[in-house]
């Protein structure tokens, strides 16, 4: 699966001042994402943080690292490979404690992974402890520790220290007295001497070949070391690119989630706007109805005022009519009284005229 983020948090990132080794220098203007990454192919844990496209933390966790809490919200650790000290400022003590727990957990995992790797290396190297110089022909004596030093395992003996003459003298020293005391066995010893010379020549050739092989192996070792250094740099570059890619993917995932949340929020806001528009339309309709009713009410009030005025006028006219009727009644009564008096007078006059007529 490669390198994947396994835990992320947000914090302000600092680095120790390389000049004073005391003051902290902020490497980010604001809180950034700090992530633990795990490479399953190499059993490696790393702490990575990006500020934009710049990697401000790229620290591989090793068993000898220690994360120290220096306050309730601040912690630090030293990275000998990067030759610096990183500091993180968290928003709460809980986030600091969580990060410290993860650091201890992944540090222990890195220690166990390192032990397993060493065990595998020991098992792999145990069958091949014999050096190539230990494989010899039946005519070649076993290679001693001095030969092992010559073919790459030490630097104490050079080729001139083990010359063919010295080897020959060491081989002939135990046989010289025997030659002196047994002249009849010269042929036998001459054959033995020839065999020893042959063996000595083979040994010298083997030594020369071993020396050439040592030089060749040293050249190959130097070439392998250069290649390993180049590959190490390439791996570091690829790890940095991979970490940046993984962090960018993580940030992209976070941005996608944020975009989805914003889209959901936007959709909810749009629905809310539609609902509010409907309510506004309803409110406008209600306002229109209210205006119409208000106008009708005003018209009704005006009509009522007119009717009240008319009623008041009618009441006044009625009162006036009543007064006129009362006056008319009084006048009629007066006229009736006058008329009764006149009728009475006429009656008396009639009676008087009737008496006069009768008397006459």
UniProtKB/TrEMBL annotation:
Any one of the GO BP annotations: G protein-coupled glutamate receptor signaling pathway
A Gene Ontology molecular function term of the record: G protein-coupled glutamate receptor binding
Region (Disordered): 117-141
GO CC annotation terms, alphabetical: cytosol; dendritic spine; postsynaptic density
Record key words, sorted: Acetylation, Cell projection, Coiled coil, Cytoplasm, Phosphoprotein, Synapse
Family per record: Belongs to the Homer family.
Name of this protein: Homer protein homolog 1
Organism of derivation: Carassius auratus (Goldfish)
Underlying gene: LOC113049625
């Amino acid at each position: 699966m490669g390198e994947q983020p396994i835990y992320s948090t947000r914090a302000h990132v600092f680095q120790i001042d390389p000049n004073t080794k005391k003051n902290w220098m902020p490497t980010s203007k604001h809180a950034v994402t700090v992530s633990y990454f795990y490479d399953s192919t190499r059993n490696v844990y790393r702490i990575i943080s990006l500020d934009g496209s710049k990697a401000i933390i790229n620290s591989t966790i090793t068993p000898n690292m220690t994360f120290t809490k220096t306050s309730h919200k601040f912690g630090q650790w030293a990275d000998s490979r990067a030759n610096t000290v990183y500091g993180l400022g968290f928003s709460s003590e809980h986030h600091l404690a969580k990060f410290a727990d993860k650091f201890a957990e992944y540090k222990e995992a890195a220690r166990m992974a390192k032990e397993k790797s060493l065990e595998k290396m020991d098992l792999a190297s145990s069958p091949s402890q014999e050096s190539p110089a230990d494989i010899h022909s039946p005519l070649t004596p076993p290679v001693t520790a001095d030969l092992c030093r010559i073919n790459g395992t030490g630097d104490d003996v050079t080729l001139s220290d083990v010359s063919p003459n010295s080897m020959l003298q060491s081989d002939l020293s135990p046989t010289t007295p025997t030659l002196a005391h047994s002249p009849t066995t010269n042929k036998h010893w001459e054959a033995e001497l020839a065999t020893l010379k042959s063996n000595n020549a083979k040994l010298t050739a083997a030594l020369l070949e071993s020396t050439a092989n040592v030089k060749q192996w040293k050249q190959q070792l130097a070439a392998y070391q250069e290649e390993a250094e180049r590959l190490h740099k390439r791996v570091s570059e690829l790890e940095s690119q991979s970490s940046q890619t993984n962090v960018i993917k993580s940030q992209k995932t976070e941005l996608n989630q944020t975009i989805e949340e914003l889209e959901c929020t936007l959709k909810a806001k749009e629905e809310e706007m539609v609902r509010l528009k409907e309510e506004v339309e309803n409110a406008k309709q209600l306002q229109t109805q209210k205006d119409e009713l208000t106008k009708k009410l005003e018209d009704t009030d005006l009509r009522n005022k007119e009717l009240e005025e008319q009623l008041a006028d009618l009441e006044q006219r009625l009162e006036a009519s009543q007064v006129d009727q009362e006056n008319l009644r009084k006048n009629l009564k007066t006229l009736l009284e006058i008329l009764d008096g006149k009728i009475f007078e006429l009656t008396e006059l009639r009676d008087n005229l009737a008496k006069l007529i009768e008397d006459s």
